[in-house]
Amino acid sequence: QTVEITGYTGGSVVLPCSCADPESKVTTVTWEFDSGNRWIKVFEDKKYSGRRVRFNERSPTNLSLLISDLRMKDQGYYKCLTELNTFTTVELKVKGCDLVEKGQTVAVTGYSGESVVLPCSCTELLAKPEQIQWKYFVENEYEEIYPDEEIESYKNRVKLLNTTTPGNLSLHISALTTEDQGGYQCVMSEQEISFRLHVE
């Protein structure tokens, strides 16, 4: 029997495993991941370094595995094995970020002295992209304005609108001037959305 669990990139997930007998005295448990051609021990694989914790602090029969900061490559089959040769199989599905309106160009109007929001989000709002960049088109090339503020005039004026929803990547620009007018891009991995900002 395989248990199916769904998680989101950037989030955490618990892969369940426990002993049927509450009096069980399991002393060793091994979590393994199916790499396609062999099973790899999770606690020995560098890609999980600093991201996994076993749950057994108060309940020795709870052998569940917590994986934090989920990535797409964590998706697949996991096996929880005890020294009694009993095991549980878990299929982990990881949902990532796909940009809404990717490849589109969106027109936005703002007003001098006020703030504006350039809307960009993942189709799965619980999915956090591994990397996000906002860029501004200046002198025939795009310069990064978030997270690295490479253009002095944007320092302390740009931030992500909503930090509580990982998939909302919308950019808030404050104290608008007519010099902010122009082309912007929300870039994530191989996907992007373009914006034309008009400032009145």
UniProtKB/TrEMBL annotation:
Subcellular localization is given as: Cell membrane
Q: What coarse category fits the chief subcellular location reported for this protein?
A: membrane
PROSITE patterns documented for this protein: IG_LIKE
GO cellular component annotations, sorted alphabetically? plasma membrane
The membrane topology of this protein is: Single-pass type I membrane protein
SUPFAM superfamilies attached here?
Immunoglobulin
Q: In the UniProt record, does the keyword Secreted occur? A: no
User: Where does the record place the Ig-like domain?
Assistant: 1-91, 113-196
Query: Which Pfam family is one of this chain's hits?
Result: V-set
For this protein, the record's InterPro entries field holds: Ig-like_dom (IPR007110), Ig-like_dom_sf (IPR036179), Ig-like_fold (IPR013783), Ig_sub (IPR003599), Ig_sub2 (IPR003598), Ig_V-set (IPR013106), T-cell_Activation_Regulation (IPR051713)
Keywords in alphabetical order? Cell membrane, Disulfide bond, Glycoprotein, Immunoglobulin domain, Membrane, Receptor, Signal, Transmembrane, Transmembrane helix
Its protein name is Ig-like domain-containing protein
Source species: Cirrhinus mrigala (Mrigala)
